[in-house]
């Protein structure tokens, strides 16, 4: 992740890292996101599926649960099919996450 531009750190049962949203309601914002440690054990052979985000980041439609999340966080189900071996797996994942957060919707203040 660090080589792909997003230094990561462990946080309990999760790996967290920051990305900058490239579009949508969060465009230009640095957003802390992550994945469950259990999901990265077989990566890149089996890529992660769930994207951890603060609960304040909202989407029009997504499947959500709170597995491995502390209070104030949720994880969103997002299919990720990494098949382009010309792109480093971590960079492909970061692009996937940036694309996902670009469809976040504004939340009420």
Blueprint of the fold:
Layout (H helix, E strand, L loop, with lengths): L7 E4 L2 E7 L9 E7 H4 L9 E5 L3 E2 L4 E2 L7 E5 L11 H13 L2 E2 L4
Antiparallel strand pairs: 1-2, 2-3, 4-7, 5-8, 6-7
Describe this structure in words.
A hairpin with a 7-residue loop joins strand 6 and strand 7. The chain is 16% helix and 31% strand. The protein is built from two helices and eight strands. It is globular and about 35 Å long. By secondary structure, it is α+β, with helices and mostly antiparallel strands. The strands form three sheets. The protein has a three-stranded antiparallel beta sheet with strand order 1-2-3. It has a three-stranded antiparallel beta sheet with strand order 4-7-6, with no helix packed on it. The chain has a two-stranded antiparallel ribbon with strand order 5-8.
